[in-house]
Every structure is written in C-alpha cells, then in structure tokens.
Specification:
By secondary structure, the protein is an alpha/beta fold. Helix content is about 15%, strand content about 25%. Strand 16 and strand 17 form a beta hairpin. It catalyses: Eliminative cleavage of (1->4)-alpha-D-galacturonan to give oligosaccharides with 4-deoxy-alpha-D-galact-4-enuronosyl groups at their non-reducing ends.
C-alpha cells in the first residue's frame, strides 16, 4: 500500500511538472534563452540590421549590433589585425540604426567587380528603400541641433581660434636650439650614392621612398590596386580602407548633396560597406555640399587627374579611410545644407569650416599623394579625438593655415591622438601650421620644407610631444622653425616642459628649431612619438620629388 501511494505521488508530481512546462512553453517566445535574453527573431527588422556570418547580439542601450570578436575577425571584409572596437563601422552611428539595410545586397557583389554605371549598380540602387521626395519630408532628415544634439555623429565642432590671433611664448631663453652643424649640409652626391644602393636592393626600381617603392615597383599595379593598403607606414599603419570590398568606378562628375546617383563619388563614399573607389578618367568634381565619407573607403585617384573643389571633405566618426592621389583645392564654407551620410539617411549640416579635408573623431586614416591648396580654413585638419593618422607624400601650396592636429584647448581628449607626417613637400606660399599640434604625440619625418614659411613651420600648445626626424628645413625670411603657442589653455608647467626635439634634421639658410623638455637622446621618453624609422635627411629631396598626385608612371 505504501509503495502504491509513493508511486501515485510521483506520477502526480510528473504530471504537475509537465503542465507547468506546457504553460511556460505557451507564454514564452520560441527562441527564449535561459540567460533571459531574446533572440534576434523576436525583434523587428527595424531594430536589427542583419549581417551575414556575424552573431547578432542586441545592445539594449544603443539598439545596435555587437559583433562577436571571433566571428567578426573571420568575415571576409575585415583583416585579422582589425579589432572589433576599431572596425565596427556600423556601430559608429548610434542614432542611425537603419544605416546598414543594404548590407546583405551589398555583399552579394563580387569583390573584384567594377561598378561603373546604373546597370551594374542595380543592386546598390535598389537599396534606397524610399524615394527622395519621401525621404526629404521624413524624420530621416534631421537637424543636428535638435534630436541629434547629443549625438556627435551629426554635429559640428566649434571653430578653431583664428590663427592670426595666436600668441607665441617668448622662447629666447630656451636651453635647446637645434641648428646647422658641420655635417648638416645637403649633399646631393651622397644622396645619389644612397639612392643607387636602395634602387639596386629593390631590383632597380626603387625611388628611396618606402611607400612608393611598395607599389610603384609593380608595373602591373592597376591590376593590383588594393595592394596599396599594405604600404602605409607610421601611426596609420594597418589602415585597410576599402581593401576588402568591391571596386567602384566613378563615371559621373556631377554632385548633389542629397541625391547623387550611381556612378558619382558621393554615391560611393556614403555606402555602408567597404569600397575601393577609382575614377574612369580625368574629372573635376565641384561639390554642392560637404562630402561625408563613411568607414572602410578608399578614394584612389591613380591613373586619372581628379580635382575635388567647392566644399569640404569630411571624415567623421569613421574608421579605415584612405584618400590617395587626388587634388583638393578651392574649398569653400557651405551650409546649413542637407547632406547624405548613408544610403538611408540625410541630415542637415550646419555651416562647415571650409577645410580641404577634415577628420573628426575618426581613426585609421591615411592621406597620401594628394595636392592641397586654397581652402577657406585649413587644408587638412584632424580633431575631436581622431587617432592613428598618417599624412604622407602630399604637396601643400598657397595657404595660410595648412594642417591642424587637435581641436581646442578645451578638448583634452585629443591627448590620445597619434599622427605621422612623412615624405610631404611643403611648397610655395605657405604661412603657418606645417603642422600645428595640440595635446597628442606627433612624428614629423623626412619632410621637405623647400620654400620656407611666413610665420612658423611646426607649432603647438597644450603640451604636445613633437619628434622632428630627418626633415629638411630651408628657411626664407623667417628662420625659426617652431613656435610654442599660448592659446589660453593649460600649459602643464610651462612651455619649457613640453617635449619637442629634433633628430637628424638638416637646417638650411640659418633655419633653427627651438626645442624644449627632454633632449632627443632620451629615446625611451620619445618612444610614444616614434612611429617609423626615418631615412637620412639627405634623401628627402629625392623621396619627396613625386609629392602630390602622380600623373605619369
């Protein structure tokens, strides 16, 4: 009897448990996880952008996708060197969760397909889910001063203090002044011997310029364009641009800030995925409004004479961007104006600075072999927490405020900034900021200051670390290369403590460099500003001879 009662109790318990599970099964989602989270299938398409091959975790704070690091590194468009933190391009716009709706159709294209017209870009064209007339009147067109007021993706920085108002510290009592010495002459004969040796070591094609020799020694470079991404040096090393995406050909030089169709430059740079952008032929593109460039893009002007004029190029909240071989000049202030920033989003941008190219809150950016001149504000600025930047092989001419690193005295987040300025030629008509630095660490390497400067070449404030390495400074009327600038910001104990040093530079025509802080011989201290090994300064004229776009090969 006792055994029968025990058996009955067990049967009743089992039945009760079965009933409880049945109730749970009908009240919980089918894909309920025991950790309490909901699967992707429980949310709408608007809440999730689907990325093939990547696990979709829902970030309840931002409504964005978090990529599993292991699976992320295995995707075909991200190299192993890229971390999820640095490469998660789609999570850079927390207020724009629908930006990547075209990703699935995008990845259906072959990686080596040439997109040059509307027919070949049919898949891209179909990603515009709503017509322009609908989009213009929709909530997708947003004034950054209202709903995006707290979203740095779509807001502009405060204008930098006018360079004409800058105040310089009196450095006449400086302990360290670097100037010409007995072995500081520019020996062209010695340079020729070195160049011949370097050329022989690289099979006879070498120019002495490591970046150029990386790709120009390949006579079939047009068929291997993406190999350029392996050539970057300095703090921008590892920038892949659009290497892992298809090639897109610009066939149409027209531009509209919002409605530029397939074949235009604006259409290419505002796509969500990686693209390697080239040009069908010579063209001048007059920008109607600020040009927004998204992550994982390469603008490759090789093989064509390409000029970008009329408005500022902006790289903001982006990663892995390469700009190579184009002329950027006559940039004007524009805005407020509507600007396309993705396949599905248009925003109203307030007045731009009128820079040639402005990098904001972005990392892994490489600007190489460009010509920059005649902008309203700066030719090339990097601000608002940007990092891992290389500026190389460019020709700068005819401008006042040439290059700025660091936003303002009130933005100490630029302390993390690392930038390399290498193999550039600073030509005629330049006044100051070659470059001008705030807060971060800067390696200025093997540049040719061939035509002097009107105020100063290298300046800085807010305790930047500056390592000048193997440059050639040919002074004009103004002899001092450097200026320690007082812009009413923190001085960190005074300009005398800022670590500025010269090593292996050549000073011509009585040029001199006013150093401060630690001497260059303290290599361990300057390690955080060291980004690549310089070549002897006597090679600089030869290494920078092809600065700017190369129009003949």
């Amino acid at each position: 009897m006792i055994a029968a009662i025990s058996m009955l109790r067990c049967l009743l318990t089992v039945a009760l448990l079965i009933q409880c599970f049945a109730i749970l099964a009908t009240s919980l989602p089918e894909d309920y996880h025991y950790d309490g989270s909901l699967s992707q299938d429980e949310f709408t398409v608007d809440q999730f952008s689907r990325f093939p091959g990547i696990r979709s975790d829902y970030d309840t704070q931002g409504g964005s996708l978090l990529a599993d690091v292991d699976e992320f590194s295995d995707t075909e468009w991200v190299t192993e060197s890229d971390s999820a933190r640095e490469s998660n391009a789609w999570d850079l716009y927390p207020g724009a969760t629908g930006d990547n709706a075209d990703w699935e159709s995008f990845t259906m294209q072959e990686g080596n397909t040439l997109f040059s017209g509307e027919s070949e870009l049919s898949t891209f064209a179909s990603t515009e889910s709503v017509g322009m007339e609908t989009l213009i009147d929709s909530s997708a067109v947003t004034n950054p001063l209202s709903s995006f007021a707290d979203d740095t993706a779509f807001t502009q920085p405060a204008h930098d203090r006018d360079a004409d108002d800058e105040v310089f510290f009196d450095t006449s009592g400086a302990d360290m002044v670097y100037k010409a010495s007995d072995d500081g002459e520019l020996s062209l004969a010695a340079a020729d011997v070195m160049l011949e040796s370097l050329a022989a070591a690289s099979g006879g094609c070498g120019t002495g310029n490591p970046i150029d020799d990386c790709w120009r020694c390949d006579r079939n470079w047009r068929s291997h364009r993406k190999s350029l991404a392996t050539c970057v040096t300095g703090f921008g090393r590892g920038t892949v641009g659009g290497k892992n995406g298809p090639i897109y050909v610009v066939t149409n030089s027209s531009d509209d800030g919002v409605d530029s169709g397939p074949g235009t430059l604006r259409y290419g740079v505002t796509r969500s995925g990686p693209l390697w952008i080239i040009f069908k032929g010579d063209m001048t593109i007059r920008l109607a409004a600020e040009l927004w460039v998204n992550s994982f893009k390469t603008i490759d002007g090789r093989g064509a004479d390409v000029h970008i004029v009329g408005a500022q190029i902006t790289i903001q909240n982006a990663t892995n961007v390469i700009v190579h071989g184009i002329s950027i000049h006559d940039s004007e202030v524009t805005g407020p104006s509507s600007v396309r920033v993705s396949p599905t989003k248009v925003v109203v941008r307030v007045e731009s600075d009128g820079d040639g190219l402005h990098i904001l809150n972005s990392q892994k950016v490489w600007v190489d072999h460009c010509y920059l001149a005649n902008a309203t504000d700066g030719l090339l600025d990097a601000t608002r927490g940007s990092n891992f930047i290389t500026v190389s092989n460019n020709l700068f001419e005819n401008h006042n405020k040439v290059m700025l690193f660091g936003s303002s005295p009130d933005f100490p987040q630029d302390r993390k900034m690392r930038a390399t300025v290498i193999y550039n030629r600073f030509g005629v008509g330049l006044i100051q900021r070659l470059p001008r630095c705030r807060y971060g660490a800067f390696h200025i390497v093997n540049n040719h200051y061939s035509e002097g400067w009107d105020k100063y070449a290298i300046g800085g404030s807010e305790d930047p670390m500056i390592l000048s390495h193997g440059n050639v400074f040919n002074a004009g009327a103004k002899k001092e290369v450097t200026k320690h600038i007082d812009d009413a910001g923190p001085t960190f104990g005074g300009w005398q403590n800022w670590d500025w040093a010269s090593s292996g530079d050549i000073f011509l025509n009585d040029a001199f460099f006013t150093g401060s802080g630690a001497n260059a011989t303290k290599s361990k201290l300057y390690a955080k500003a060291f980004s690549t090994t310089p070549r002897p300064a006597i090679l600089v004229p030869a290494m920078t001879k092809s600065a700017g776009p190369i129009l003949s090969y």
